[in-house]
Write a structure and sequence with these properties.
Length: 156
């Protein structure tokens, strides 16, 4: 299955980044124009992950990690946030009770369009009453909200 990278050309139209990409993209366009109503073509589109957005996401996680005292490993903390955000699969545990296993957020596995809603869900979870009471159990609800808000506000 070919992989083609396209960009906007000087004339404002889509073109391949390299000559090979351009040839493959032209072949795809020709195939699209030749389709009959009974035929179909499937393609997969990926928007590259934004490096600055990716780095900001991890800076936010690290800032939250530094402000709490429940976790002593940032990777465990990140996975807890991902599970809390619902970005996980449930598997039967050793005694049959469901166990949540976070899915991969690897840079090359998720594109920008797939990563943005996960990012939002993680930080919505961090602001939730459940997360705040767990992470800052010694604070009342008002102060724990102020704590998480102070940490996350600088990244918004």
């Amino acid at each position: 299955m070919p992989t083609v990278t396209i960009t906007k050309g000087q004339d404002g139209k889509a073109v391949g980044v390299t000559n090979k990409d351009d040839a493959a993209f032209n072949k795809f366009r020709a195939r699209m124009h030749a389709l009959t109503p009974q035929e179909s073509v499937t393609f997969i589109w990926r928007e590259p992950r934004s490096g600055p957005f990716h780095r900001r996401h991890f800076l936010m996680i690290n800032a939250l990690f530094e402000s709490q005292e429940q976790f002593d490993d940032v990777d465990h903390f990140r996975k807890w946030l991902e599970v809390g955000a619902g970005y996980c699969d449930l598997y039967p545990g050793p005694r049959g009770k469901p166990v949540a296993v976070p899915k991969s957020i690897a840079y090359d596995k998720l594109d920008q369009a797939e990563f943005e809603p996960i990012h939002k869900a993680i930080f919505d979870f961090a602001r939730s009453e459940h997360a705040r009471r767990f992470l800052w159990g010694h604070l009342d609800d008002e102060r724990s909200y102020a704590m998480v808000d102070a940490v996350l506000r600088e990244f918004e």
